[in-house]
Amino acid sequence: MTEDTKFHHGDVPEHAPIVEMRDIEKHFGNIIALAGVSFDVKPGECHCLLGDNGAGKSTFIKTMSGVHKPTKGEIYFEGRPMSFDSPRDAMEAGIATVFQDLAMIPLMSVTRNFFMGREPTKGSGPLKRLDIEKMNATTMEEMRRLGINLRAPDQAVGTLSGGERQTVAIARAVHFGAKVLILDEPTSALGVRQTSNVLATIDKVRKQGVGVVFISHNVRHALAVGDRFTVLNRGKTLGTATRGEISPEELQDLMAGGQELAELEGSLGGTV
Amino acid sequence: MSDSASQSAVDERLKNESFGARLMKRPELGAIAGVILVTIFFLATADPAMFTLSGVVNFMTPAAQLGILAIGAALLMIGGEFDLSIGSMVAFAGLFFAAATVTMGLPLSIAIPATFVFAALMGSLNGFIVIRSGLPSFIVTLAFLFILRGLSLVGLKLATGGSTQLRGVREAVEDDWLAPFFSGDAFSGLFAWLAKNGLIETFKSGTPKVPGFPVEIIWFLIIAILATWVLLRTPVGNWIFAAGGDPNAATNSGVPVRKVKISLFMVTACCAALVAIITVMDAGSTDARRGFQKEFEAIIAAVIGGCLLTGGYGSAIGAFFGATIFGMVVIGLTYTSFDQDWFQVFLGGMLLIAVLFNNAIRKRVTGER
Question: What parts of the sequence cross the membrane (chain B) (predicted)?
Fold first, then answer.
C-alpha cells in the first residue's frame, strides 16, 4: 500500500461541517433505499463514502445534491437546516456534483464546456456577446491550477483523456464556487496513471478549502487520498473512521458485509 | 467553434498547426470545397454567361430561397432535432399570407407579422410535441409534413371556392410601403448608377441587365450572418450546440434545453414563413405545391454545410454554401449541354460524399479512433 500517504499532507483542519446529514432515510414505495445514514463533510477535507454496489451510495449522493428529498432525517448546510428542492438549489448553495457522465459534450471545446450554461458576456443590447478571451483565459488558468496544461482552450473535450475530462469537470465546479464537491466514482473508469492524476487533483481542490465527498468502491483509491471514511452497507452507515484508525482489510470487510469476503479473498490469494 | 484567442503560455505539446490543419477543423470546410469544385466544373463545361453578374444573380436567387430554409434547418439540426415539415410549412404559411392579404384584404404591416406569429405557433406545436413525448422529431414532423400539406390544399379550396391556387396577391399588395422589403430587387438605384457608368452590363436601351439584387439574396445574407453571430458569439449559440451535443449533460449544466429546442422549431418555421412571403409576393399567387420537397433539399444543404445528423455540430456559413452549391447546380446545368435531370443524381451524390466526409471530420474532432 505505497499509495497510502502519497496524496495526503498534514492533518484535517478542525472546522464546523459545511454539510451535515443526520439519520437520512429514503424510501421508494416499499423499498427502503436508505435506512438511517449520517454523514458530514468539513471544509478542506476529503471524506470518502465507501460501499459495494447496491449499498445506497447513489441514492445518498442524490439526496445530498438535491435530486431526491429525504423521507426522514435532517440536512444542515453551514449549521442551518436546509431543504433542497432541486439540484439547482443545491448548486446555488455551493454543493456541486460531478456525476460519472461528467456533463461534458465531446464535440464542444473545453472552454465552451467549461462555461456551458453560465457564459460570461460583454457588451449590451444586441451587441451582447460571449467574452471569448476571458473564457479562454479563465479555462486555461483554472486547469493550470489543477496541474493540467491544456494544449489549447478550443480543443474539443472529445480529444482529452478520461482523467483530463474529470479534471475539467472538477475545475468547472470549483470555479463556480463549490464549497462541497461530490465526486461520484471519479476513478472507476480510469487507468493507473490517470487515477493518480485525479487523486492529485482531489488533493489540490481540498487544499483550496473545498470539502470533497469522494464516492468509491475502491478501498485503495479511497485510502490514498481520504481523511475520513464512511462505509455504507445495505442502506445504513456502518460508522466513520479517521485516517490511520483503520486498515484496508477492515474497510474491505466492512464494505462487503464481513466474513464472506475474507474467505473469498483467502481463496483468491489476496488479490481483491 | 474555433474560439481562437491568443494564448499566453506556449505549450511544448502544441505542435504548430498548419493553416490547413486548422481549416480541417471547421465544419463548413466541406461546403466551401464543394463550391470551389462545382465552380471549376461549370467554368469548364458551362456557357461563360453563367459567371456574369446576371448569371450569378440567376443561380443565387433559388439558392437564397432554399438557403433561408437551410439555415433554419441547420440551426435546428445543430440543436439536435429535425423538421421535415418545413416544405409543407412554406405552403401553409403561403396560404395564410395570401388569405390574409387577398381574402381578408389586410395591409402587409398586419399580414406579415401575423404570418410569422402563425408560423411560430405551428413551430412551437411541433417542438412541444417532440419535447413532451420524447419521440424522435423525425416522426413527429413527418406527421406534420402531411398534415400541413393537406391543410394547405383544403384551406386553398375553402378560400377560393374549389381551386388549389389563390391569385391576386400582387394586386393586393402592390402599393404597400412594406412590399419592397419582401419582393422585387434591392439597390436598383445603385445598379442603375453602375450601368450608367458602364460598370455593369446593360441592354441596348441603357437599362442594366440586372436591375438589382433580388431581395431574397439580401435576406439570405442577413440571416446567414445573424445565425453565425448567434452560434459563435452568444450564450444562446453555446446552448444550441450543447442541447444538440448531449441534452442531459446540457440540462445538468443549467442550459434550458427545452426552451432552446422549442425556440429553434419556431425559428425554422419562421424561415419557412419568410420564404413563403417572398415567393408568394414574387409569383403573385400561392398554390398547394409551394415548397414541395424543400424539407429534404434544406436538410441536404445543411448536411453539405457540415451539420451532423446526430446534432451538436455544424455551421450556418456551411448551410449558406450548401445552398449555394444547390443553386449553382440546378441553374448551372441549364448553361451546359447536359440533361437537366442529372441534377438529382448530383444532389444525391453530394449528400453521400458530405455525410461520409462529415463522419470522418467528427472522428477527427472528437479524437475517436
Answer: 29-53, 59-79, 86-104, 138-157, 177-196, 217-242, 262-284, 296-322, 342-361
Distance from first CA to last CA of chain A, Å, rounded? 13
The answer to whether residue A88 is domain-embedded is yes
Count of CB pairs separated by less than 8 Å, A with B: 120
The CATH label, of 1.10.287, 1.10.3470, 1.10.1760, 2.60.120, for the domain at B30-358 is 1.10.3470
Total of domains in chain A: 1
Domains in chain B: boundaries:
30-358
pLDDT level of residue A211 (50, 70, 90 thresholds): very high
CA A117 – CA A229 distance, rounded (Å): 34
pLDDT in tens, B128-146: 999 999 999 999 999 999 9
A122/B contact by beta carbon, under 8 A: no
Tally the residues of chain A.
272
Read off the pLDDT of each residue in B272-291 and give the average, rounded to a whole number. Answer: 92
d(CA A229, CA A18): 17
Alpha-carbon distance B78 to B80, whole Å?
A: 5
pLDDT (average), residues A156-168:
86
d(CA A128, CA A241): 52
Minimal C-alpha gap between A29 and chain B (Å) = 26
CB contact under 8 A, A140 and B7: yes
A43-60: average pLDDT: 87
State yes or no: pLDDT of B7 exceeds 50: no
Using CA atoms, how far apart are residues B366 and B359, in angstroms rounded to an integer?
A: 11
Digit-coded pLDDT (tens) for B110-122: 999 999 999 999 9
> pTM to 2 decimals?
0.85
**Contact in structure between B193 and B40 (CB atoms under 8 Å):** no
Quick one: which H or E segment has residue B307?
none
pLDDT for A252: 80
* Residue of A107, A115, A132 for testing the chain B interface, max B β-carbons within 10 Å: A107
